[in-house]
Write a sequence for this structure.
């Protein structure tokens, strides 16, 4: 099986009206936006976040005029001096060939990383991250910082091992993944007691919402080993549903946007952020554009942090 050589289509509009680029032409150290609508939906499910990349890009249009302005979440303009941002468009998704979807993502990430790019993934459901993380881990040791209401440690669901509830379990099996820090778990999700026990036994550091309520973001930041490159795996259901209502299941008691700014800036001070994945946004379930605007801001924060790490 050979993956498609090109992405599905160029983005229109492009994220923050940046220049368009094929993955194989991305400039060295550029932040490369890549939309991935879906990869491995469950048989009982659907590609529920497929419209998210376009929704985030559309929301970014309102931010373009202020791109060079001071961003107080980043302590400067979005892009540092010399920073580049390009949009690689969206990968194709074939609901009838899930292995090919994963191969396409893996090949695209291998190309982006070989060029020295810093990928900003606009998903897509959580399953799109699995092949992307494989590409990162194949190149060197990484830390995964997951923000999510759920720990995603199921070995399989409906017989599918590469679906959205298995992302951290599959990541743990990659040689290059040395540390997994999981932030924001709360309520109930796909995890059964055995899944939580196996996550802990495998060394995953579960910084759940109870810990964060008691101690703030400091324990999550401190759990990230200094120096080793970090890939951020951000399921937007980590936010409280009053912040981002557009998710598959609204679980109360989540993170505020400001918590996330504190967390990610704290992590970026400790280690370079080399990849930033935003998944599980469901624009159709948003309320009055509230969450769309916030997820767009998250993507901007991710772009700014990636660009700062790439510039070092
Ligand atoms: Mn989740």
């Amino acid at each position: 099986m050979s993956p498609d050589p090109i992405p599905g289509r160029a983005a229109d509009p492009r994220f923050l009206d940046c220049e368009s680029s094929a993955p194989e032409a991305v400039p060295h150290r550029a932040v490369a936006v890549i939309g991935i609508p879906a990869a491995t939906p469950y048989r009982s499910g659907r590609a529920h976040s497929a419209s998210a990349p376009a929704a985030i890009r559309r929301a970014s249009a309102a931010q373009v005029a202020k791109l060079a302005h001071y961003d107080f979440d980043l302590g400067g303009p979005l892009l540092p001096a010399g920073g580049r941002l390009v949009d690689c468009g969206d990968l194709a998704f074939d609901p009838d060939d899930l292995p090919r979807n994963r191969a396409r993502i893996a090949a695209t990430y291998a190309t982006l990383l070989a060029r020295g790019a810093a990928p900003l993934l606009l998903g897509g459901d959580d399953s799109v991250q699995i092949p992307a993380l494989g590409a990162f881990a194949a190149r060197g040791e990484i830390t995964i910082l997951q923000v999510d209401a759920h720990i995603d440690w199921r070995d399989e669901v409906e017989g599918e091992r590469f679906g959205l509830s298995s992302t951290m379990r599959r990541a743990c099996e990659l040689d290059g993944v040395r540390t997994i820090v999981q932030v924001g778990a709360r309520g109930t999700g796909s995890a059964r007691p055995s899944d939580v026990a196996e996550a802990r036994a495998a060394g995953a550091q579960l910084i759940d919402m109870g810990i964060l309520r008691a101690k703030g973001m400091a324990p999550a930041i401190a759990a990230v080993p200094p120096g080793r490159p970090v890939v951020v795996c951000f399921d937007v259901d980590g936010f409280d549903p009053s912040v981002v209502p557009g998710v598959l299941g609204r679980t109360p008691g989540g993170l505020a946007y400001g918590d996330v700014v504190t967390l990610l800036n704290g992590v970026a001070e400790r280690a370079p952020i080399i990849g930033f994945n935003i998944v599980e946004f469901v624009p159709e379930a948003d309320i009055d554009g509230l969450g769309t605007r916030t997820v767009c801001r998250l993507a901007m924060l991710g772009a700014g942090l990636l660009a700062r790490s790439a510039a070092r």
Q: What stands out?
A: The beta strands are 19-20, 31-36, 85-90, 118-123, 142-147, 177-183, 205-207, 230-235, 273-279. The domain at 15-311 is CATH 3.40.800.10 (Arginase; Chain A).
